Amino acid sequence: MIDTGDLRKGLIIEHDGALQRIVEYQHVKQGRGSAFVRLTMRNLRTGSTTSQTFQAGSRFPLVRLERQRVQFLYPEDENYIFMDLDTFEQIPLSQETLGDALKYLKEQETIDLLTYQGEPIDIELPITVELVVTQTDPGFRGDTATGGNKPATLETGVVVNVPLFINEGDTLKIDTRSGEYLERVS
Question: For the chain, what is the domain count?
Answer without folding.
Answer: 3
